[in-house]
Amino acid sequence: MKYLREYNESGQYSGLFEEWYEDGQIATSGRYYNGVQEDKWTIWSKVGTIESEGSYKNGIKVGKWIEPDFYGTKEVDYGY
Question: How far apart are CA 5 and CA 20, in angstroms?
Fold first, then answer.
């Protein structure tokens, strides 16, 4: 994997966070704020389809997420 990570002065993840597969295909995209996951996050499969997508607030999943299960993908509502 290849990575793009931004850090704050305390050394915590803060800002854009991205990972790519070795072939250059995007794997993960999201943001951190002072070491905590925030806002929209997306995770892609190696073939480029979205495997998981949703938002975090203070490091907790909120709202509607697309997540895989045994039968494929489903929508999960975490409220808030």
Answer: 12
DSSP structure class, residue 48: S
Q: How many domains does the chain have?
A: 1
pTM of the model: 0.84
Count Cβ atoms below 10 Å from residue 61 Cβ, excluding itself: 19
Amino acid identity for residue 43 in this structure: I
Give the residue numbers spanning the domain of 23: 2-77
Which CATH number does the domain housing residue 20 bear?
Answer: 2.20.110.10
* Average pLDDT per consecutive 10 residues, the chain (80 residues; last block may be shorter): 91 96 96 97 92 95 86 73
Residue 74 buriedness (CB in 10 A; 0-12 / 13-18 / 19+): exposed
